[in-house]
Amino acid sequence: MWNEVSETLADLDLGGGGAMLLPDQVDATGAVRHLAIGAGKDAIIYVVDRDSLGGFNPSKNNIWQEIDGAMAGAVRSTPAYFDGHVYMSDRDHSLKSFTIAAAKLPEAATSQTAATFGYPGTSPVVSANGSFNGIVWAAEPATTGVLHAYDANNLAIELYNSKQAANGRDS
Which pTM value belongs to this model? Predict the structure, then answer.
């Protein structure tokens, strides 16, 4: 990153979150892109082309895509992927989904959870039956944590959470 020294000194380093390799993506010109995505404590999403990382430039990042403003808080987790969607979490905010089109992420989330996830956020995990019936799982990082299950196509739809069975096996 062009500003790695200032971000490190301000404790906003990229190392707070993990990187994820995306499946091959086709861009608007029809070219196949080999991308990786990640974010850090600066709350900026970075998408890099693994075949052309851009090199160092002292005034700007030469990367495939950089999205500033889509995440409100620091990112300290690794994203998850399912069927054209990237799921990311930031500290003290909702879990967000970004739908990939032409090898680019939108500037804003395409869906998000009603629940928020305190420090350090959540690390989403996806289960599915092949490319069908995707469920995004997210755990609240609290003393009495809650496990949430969301529809992978729309995170506003919560399928389950472990507080629903307060007197049952999940309590």
Answer: 0.88
